[in-house]
Amino acid sequence: MVGKILTQTIEDTEELISYLEAGCKPIAAWKIGTEHEKFGYNKTSLKPLPYFGVCSIKSILEGLQETFGWLPILEENQLIGLSKAGANISLEPGGQLELSGAPLDNVHETCLEVANHLAEVKTIADRIGAGFIGLGAAPIWNHDDMPIMPKGRYKLMAPYMEKVGSHGTQMMFRTCTVQVNLDYFSEKDMIRKLRV
Predict the structure, then answer these.
(1) Of 23, 54, 55, 161, which is most buried with the most CB atoms under 10 A?
(2) Rounded to whole angstroms, how far apart are CA atoms 122 and 131?
(3) Does residue 2 register a pLDDT over 60?
(4) DSSP state of 77
(5) Which of 182, 179, 94 is CA-nearest to residue 141?
(6) Per-residue pLDDT reduced to its tens digit, 145-171
(7) Is it the case that residue 56 has pLDDT exceeding 90?
């Protein structure tokens, strides 16, 4: 987990190397973070959750905020995410709900964090008739079934992704993943972890 925030455009290889080197940390300072994405769906229609409505992504976010004390993240007065205790809940382009976990000391803590998150999401989802499924790709939905979330960058990304490859928009709207963020102490350590 690179320590400094990138504030300028990287212009060449040396600048990229310098940026990555700045993220090196001693082993005693290492943390681990988890990113966990999942698809929400309406249990009656089996369709993906739209942003608006009774059974919706917005209802999930509002329920997590009201019931479990998450703080709102807004973009142009739209609720697009939540934050609490170093973790964030955000929206991927097709309504995938993502936990971006806090930097924690070990994998056991990340496991507990994800389990607590899933329990909270299930509590709210059960109230509104929604379910969540963690699969790599949307099971039966086609591209036209997927909603687009009200984040400005997604409206810009979708047309661009259509131009740069044959499956870019499919990846944006119809895939989920679980990711791990790891600290490293050297370039060699970073490369080894990336390859694993």
Answers:
(1) 55
(2) 7
(3) no
(4) T
(5) 94
(6) 888 888 877 777 777 777 777 777 777
(7) yes
Q: Assess contact for 59 and 158: CB atoms under 8 A.
A: no
Residues 6+ apart with CB under 8 A from 72: 61, 65, 79, 81, 82
Count CA within 13 A, CB hemisphere, residue 148. Answer: 14
Sign of CA dihedral 173, 177, 183, 187: negative
Write down the H helix ranges in the chain.
13-21, 57-68, 107-128, 152-164, 168-174, 187-195
The whole-chain average pLDDT of the chain stands at 90
Return the CA Rg of the chain. Answer: 18
Selection from 17, 22, 35, 10 nearest residue 183 by Cα: 22
- Please tell me the distance from the alpha carbon of residue 184 to that of residue 166, in angstroms, as a whole number: 34
pLDDT value at 62 more than 90: yes
Task: Compute CA distances 93 → 76, 97, 149, whole Å.
Answer: 17, 9, 5
Kind plus residue range of the DSSP H or E element containing 97: strand 97-100
Q: What is the pLDDT of residue 78?
A: 93
∠ CA 32-35-40, rounded to 5°: 155
pLDDT digit string, tens, across residues 121-136: 999 999 999 999 999 9
